From TrEMBL:
<dbReference type="InterPro" id="IPR008984">
    <property type="entry name" value="SMAD_FHA_dom_sf"/>
</dbReference>
<keyword id="KW-0472">Membrane</keyword>
<feature type="transmembrane region" description="Helical">
    <location>
        <begin position="115"/>
        <end position="135"/>
    </location>
</feature>
<dbReference type="InterPro" id="IPR000253">
    <property type="entry name" value="FHA_dom"/>
</dbReference>
<protein>
    <recommendedName>
        <fullName>FHA domain-containing protein</fullName>
    </recommendedName>
</protein>
<keyword id="KW-0812">Transmembrane</keyword>
<feature type="domain" description="FHA">
    <location>
        <begin position="3"/>
        <end position="53"/>
    </location>
</feature>
<feature type="transmembrane region" description="Helical">
    <location>
        <begin position="141"/>
        <end position="161"/>
    </location>
</feature>
<dbReference type="Pfam" id="PF00498">
    <property type="entry name" value="FHA"/>
</dbReference>
<dbReference type="InterPro" id="IPR050923">
    <property type="entry name" value="Cell_Proc_Reg/RNA_Proc"/>
</dbReference>
<keyword id="KW-1133">Transmembrane helix</keyword>
Amino acid sequence: MKIKIGKAEDNDFIVNDPHVSRHHACLMREDHGCWLLEDLGSTNGTFVNGSQIVKKRVTPTDKIILGTGYVLNLSEALKYNNDYSEEFAALKKVYDDYVQAKVKIQSANQFKTRLFQSLPFALPGIIGVVIGFLGKGSPEFLGISLFITICAPTVGIYMGAKQASKTPQQLQDIANQFKIDYVCPKCGTFLGEIPWESLRNRKQCPVSSCKAKWVSE
């Protein structure tokens, strides 16, 4: 992870000092958590505790000078950490889970809708066979069979339509949660339904004022 320091607007920590170079220095976090300060070939140099350095491990107690007199507050500079690669990586599961849930809901509802709509048309025939064995032509059983034959398709169409109507609400529920979870880890901007891999290729948040980096350099 790096925090770039200098006068240029593309730095993480911008210094408005005439003696500081456009891309003056950078802070790099090492694996064990310490910070390494590196001069990026600046015109007026970088100094730690009075000595000019090219690269040196630093702590908040060190006195850091950029150029001829700008005092760099390390604790303040570290607040401008824009590396959100770990948090962004976690969004892959959020996106994958959303896509899978959406497909599952759509598939399940299509199956149930077809089932409710088709089963009632087959049901009278099945019942007719059963009644034929049990009722042996009894008027009561024939009446029941006729009633089911007339009503079953209507009930099936109603149940199928009712099941189909559940789909938009279920999809809306997961979409609402997705809008809460699938956001830039820094600025909270919803990232739309853009695939995670496509966002990763952009490497940073599309909001210009955010500057959150999604891929470690």
